[in-house]
Structure formats: structure tokens, C-alpha cells
Amino acid sequence: MSDTKAAWLRQNSTLFYFLIAQFIAIGAGAASVLAYMVKLETRVHTMETRGAEYTVARMDELKLRIAQQEQSTRTNSESIQRIIDVMTRELRISPNQARP
């Protein structure tokens, strides 16, 4: 009986190697998915922990930048208006006057 089992095992050794390799590949895939899930959960936990403070700080920073841009735009607009006034005064034309 043991001779027949040994012979059968020798004949089907390729099948056993394939099955072992398949189990190893499935295990590696499962380990990879598990590692990805742990990494993702860590990121979610981190964002939940510090997300609110971080978001508020970021929004305050953006509001400050917007205010600076608005001030810069206002200053540039006033400067352009002064240049237009000086140029129209020197050319003795009205800025609203249509050209022929």
C-alpha cells in the first residue's frame, strides 16, 4: 500500500508543487491586502484625530492670503487710476470721451 501511495505521489508531484505555490501566492496577496487596509485605517485615524484643527488652520491661512491679495488688488487699482488721471490731464482729453 505504501508503494502505491509513493508512486501516486511521484506521478502527481507537479500538482502538489502547483498547489503549494498557489497557497503561497494567495497568502502573499492576503498579506498585501491586510497591510494596505492597516495603512489606510492609520491614515483615516490620523485625519480624524487632527483633521479638524488642521482644516481650521489651513482655512485661516487661506483667508489671510485672500485678504492680502484683495489689498494688493485695491492698491494696484488705485495706482492705475492715478496713472490714467495724470495721462488724461496731460493729453487734455476726457477718459469718457469717444474717439472719432
Topology, pairings included?
Layout: H1 2-11, H2 13-91
Brief account:
This protein has two helices and no strands.
Structural class: mainly alpha
Q: Unreliable stretches, pLDDT < 50, 5 or more residues?
A: none
Order of helices and strands: HH
β-sheet strand percentage: under 5%
Instruction: For the record, give the distance between the C-alpha atoms at the N and C termini, rounded to a whole number.
Output: 116 Å
- How many beta-strand runs? 0
Question: What spatial form do the alpha-carbon principal axes imply?
Answer: rod-shaped
Our Rg estimate from Cα atoms comes to 38 Å
Task: Give the % helix.
Answer: over 70%
Q: Given the structure, what is the number of helices?
A: 2
Q: Characterize the main sheet.
A: none
**Could you tell me the mean pLDDT?**
86
Describe the structure.
With 100 residues, the chain is mostly helical. The chain has a domain at 66-92. Helix content is 89%, strand content 0%. It is built from 2 helices and no strands.
